[in-house]
Amino acid sequence: MTDWPDDFDIRHDDETAQAVQGFIATHLTALRDYDAQREEWVKKNLPQDYVMTYRFHDHTLRVADDMRKTAMHLGLSETCAHHLYLAMLVHDVGKIKLPVKLWDMVDKPDDYIKNERRRHTGLGVDLIHKHLPQEHPMIELMVDITAYHHENMDGSGYLGLTGDDLSLPVRLACIIESFDGYATVRPHFGDRDVSPAGVIKRMREEKGAAIYDLELLEAFAAVKIMDYKDGNKM
Ligand SMILES: [Fe+2]
Ligand SMILES: [Fe+2]
């Protein structure tokens, strides 16, 4: 498979580049505002000692950065890494269309809440199509990653797609998305090891090839471990 987004350069296409940049800027701001609304809701509705650790805006910046770094580590071009970075900046935009009360809770979410949360992928695709109606490989990449970043190789993800249906950008996005989720402490995690090495170990040993593309997992692991040694905790 050679479906890395390396056969175009968004920076050579002024009109689409501007539309994409505008969409990203507007929706990153919207995601930050949404996090602020969540925080307000948490203050009013959850115990005083509840700490809101998983901010969607910050998560988005972290995972986009991870996409770019892993792409460079894989030897892909700087242009290709930039496309993957931009696409990852929109992957969770659909969350802003869901009620703020859906995300923060002391206990594990029940099935109803899980299913509601899962709608964020389709809602994100709707937002992209609404604001970026033109056809362009950059927009196709954004849609691909937004739609499928919670799929698993064995079909146990949100939509039940299997490895053969998942592009390389999507496979990498799934790995990076999982890592960031596991590495951010949340109330129901107990005393789980959330260090980069601990999370990677868990992803290799407990999830493995059933869930991830192992070649991409190892490339990402190398980036994370190097990052950690350089003193960058996340
Ligand atoms: Fe997501
Ligand atoms: Fe995400």
What do you see in this structure?
The chain is globular. It has 234 residues and is mostly helical. It contains nine helices and no strands. The chain has helices spanning 14-45, 56-73, 78-88, 111-118, 120-131, 137-148, 168-183, 196-211, 214-229. The model has no long low-confidence stretch (mean pLDDT 94).
Which helices and strands appear, and what pairs or packs with what?
Elements (H helix, E strand, L loop, with lengths): L13 H32 L10 H18 L4 H11 L22 H8 L1 H12 L5 H12 L19 H16 L12 H16 L2 H16 L5
List its traits.
mainly alpha; 60% helix; binds fe (ii) ion; 234 residues
Beta content: under 5%
Low-confidence stretches are none
Q: What count of helical segments does DSSP give?
A: 9
Bound molecules: fe (ii) ion
SSE string, helices as H and strands as E? HHHHHHHHH
> Distance between termini?
30 Å
Mean pLDDT comes to: 94
Radius of gyration: 17 Å
What structural class do the secondary elements suggest?
mainly alpha
Basic shape: globular
